[in-house]
Specification:
With 268 residues, this protein is of the alpha+beta class. Strands 1-2-5-4-3-12 form a 6-stranded antiparallel β-barrel. The protein has a 6-stranded antiparallel β-barrel with strand order 6-7-8-11-10-9. It is elongated, with a radius of gyration of 36 Å. The protein contains 3 helices and 12 strands, in the order αααββββββββββββ. It folds into 2 domains: 58 residues, no CATH class; 158 residues, Beta Barrel (Thrombin, subunit H).
Length: 268
């Protein structure tokens, strides 16, 4: 009985093939299109599975890669521990020497993270607004910086936001010192275009100044607004002013003023 059924199926398949071969080319094309349509969902499912498998493979990390990453993080952690130990020893020695000569100790910076929420598109180098205000304990003249260097200071404080006056604004001047020579000057807005390469001017250097390009400029600490040793930037070039009586240095800022998104506000 089973063999008879197989024979019947085989005969039907042969007849179907003969009928399909006898069909006109146009009708044959339609039949092929209809049959292929039945398998499209399966092909689509297979393609999706293949694509997902490929993406998953790209995101997978081998055990060896994880081991190497873990070892690298462990090494960096050990290196940071050693550096912290060295820094602690330096701080301890500094405090001891200050105590011997009667100098007051330096305070640890107390900083709070803030987000830049608004800038003037026409004068973006002059000011910015951040999302901290009086309710967060902010007051005018608090220094503002990034991990790269000084940005400016708080100019006005609202309840929930504050206005920050930025380096490059003609209304902001900062007492600065050139390291390691120790020459001092005043940071002013750039005498050229304010947007030019993130530049500012360092004025009131002597006509016989020995500063040179590449030296680091930091806050001096005089004036009571900005603590000492906050990075400001690096000297790019020099020019003589007032018939050789003074020198002006152009300084490229350490912080990128055109890309401020998050800043740190330094409170006493």
């Amino acid at each position: 009985m089973l063999k008879k059924r197989h024979y019947i199926i085989l005969v039907l398949v042969v007849l179907l093939v003969i009928v399909l071969l006898k069909l006109p080319s146009e009708a044959m094309g339609r039949v092929k299109l209809a049959i292929s349509g039945l398998f499209l969902p399966l092909f689509g499912l297979a393609g999706s599975v293949h694509e997902l498998t490929g993406r998953a493979g790209e995101n997978l990390v081998t055990k060896e890669q994880l081991a190497r990453q873990n070892e690298e993080l462990r090494r960096q952690n050990e290196e940071l521990k050693i550096r912290l130990q060295q820094e602690a020893a330096t701080v301890s020695e500094n405090a001891r020497l200050r105590g011997m000569v009667g100098w007051p100790g330096q305070k640890i910076w107390n900083v709070r993270l803030a987000r830049v929420i608004a800038r003037d598109p026409a004068n973006w180098w002059r000011s910015a607004q951040i999302d901290l205000g009086a309710r967060d304990g902010l007051k005018p003249n608090y220094p503002v910086l990034t991990s790269d260097g000084l940005v400016g200071r708080i100019q006005a404080v609202g309840q929930t936001r504050s206005q920050v006056i930025l380096l490059g604004n003609p209304d902001l001047r900062v007492a600065a010192v050139v390291q390691p020579d120790g020459e001092t000057g005043i940071i002013n807005a750039s005498s050229s275009s304010p947007q030019e390469n993130n530049m500012i001017d360092l004025d009131y250097l002597s006509g016989t100044s020995k500063v040179r390009p590449g030296q680091i400029v930091e806050t001096w600490g005089e004036g009571g607004v900005f603590p000492a040793h906050i990075p400001i930037g690096k000297i790019v070039d020099l020019r003589v002013k007032d018939f050789g009586m003074a020198t002006q240095a152009r300084v490229q800022l350490a912080a990128d003023m055109g890309a401020l998104q998050e800043v740190w506000v330094m409170a006493p």
